[in-house]
Amino acid sequence: MYTTVNEDGILNNYATEPKMYYAEYPAIWEQRKYVVQGVFASLIVTTLVLVALGVS
Length: 56
Fold this sequence. Notes:
By secondary structure, the protein is an alpha+beta fold. The chain has a domain at 24-56. The protein has one helix at residues 28-55, and strands at residues 2-5, 11-14. A two-stranded antiparallel ribbon has the order 1-2. It is elongated. The termini are far apart. The model has no long low-confidence stretch (mean pLDDT 91).
């Protein structure tokens, strides 16, 4: 942790900044996994909307 002290003796604490890195493009198997997750999420949202319309 990085700490500074001003002229009044007040401490200012700063968190350690993480090392930065560039994101890598997802592999083909990761892309397929994202598609499957998107399909399941769409099905859940569609089901919830239809249930809400059916109940009301």
